[in-house]
Amino acid sequence: MVLEFIPALVLTPIIGLYELFLIHHDENFRGSHWLSHGLSIFPTIFIALLIVFNVPYFLEITNLANASSILANAWVIRGLIGLIILIRIHAQSAVVKTTIGSSRGLKETWAHGLVVAVLIVLAPLYWPLVEPLIKSIIPI
After folding, report:
1. 3-state secondary structure string, the chain?
2. Is the pLDDT assigned to residue 47 strictly greater than 90?
3. CA 107 distance to own-chain centroid
4. Of the residues 22, 91, 105, 132, which has the fewest C-beta atoms closer than 10 A?
5. What are the sequence ranges of the domains in the chain?
6. Average pLDDT, the chain
7. Which of 63, 62, 118, 54 lies closest to 86, judged by CA?
8. pLDDT the model gives residue 101
9. CB contact set of 46 (below 8 Å; sequence gap of 6+)
10. The pLDDT of residue 99 is above 80
11. Average of pLDDT values for 8-30?
């Protein structure tokens, strides 16, 4: 079993751009600070996708796959990663304050954060559908 880097490299810009569109939709102030603030989500998405795609590898090398604990289930670990990402996305978006008299700032809705977290967690399921399309466009 080998580490999976290509899916994380390919899906990071796709999910990251979607996240930028969501931040722009939820923003409540004038200016372009949402863009520079939103770009910081890309490394987070890449690391999360890297972890999500390599959970089976991690379970194999740590011998947790043979254990009878709840952490032996790859989907439990992926779900925990999704929860961490959801909190991270929401916390990051709540940092910026608005300039129009509202306390909302860039605060992204929980639903939008949940959509991004689900896209990250379920990436191993839809990657086999996306991979042929990507390979037809870019030789991987």
Report:
1. CCCCCHHHHHHHHHHHHHHHHHHHHHCCCCCCHHHHHHCCHHHHHHHHHHHHHCHHHHHHHCCHHHCCCHHHCHHHHHHHHHHHHHHHHHHHHHCCCCCCCCCCCCCCCHHHHHHHHHHHHCHHHHHHHHHHHHHHHCCC
2. yes
3. 17
4. 132
5. 16-137
6. 82
7. 118
8. 47
9. 8, 9, 12
10. no
11. 80
Q: Do 89 and 19 contact (CB within 8 A), yes or no?
A: yes
- What predicted TM-score, i.e. pTM, was given to this entire model? 0.82
- Give the C-alpha separation, 94 to 74, whole Å: 30
Identity of residue 46: F
- 47: buried, middle or exposed (CB in 10 Å: 19+, 13-18, 0-12)? middle
CB 20 within 8 A of CB 98: no
Which distant-in-sequence residues (6+ apart) come within 8 Å of 112 by Cβ?
Answer: 22, 25, 26
Reading phi first (left if > 0) and then psi (alpha if -120 to 50, else beta), residue 101 is in: left
Give the pLDDT confidence score for residue 96 in this predicted structure.
Answer: 57
> Residue 120, Cβ neighbours under 10 Å: how many?
25
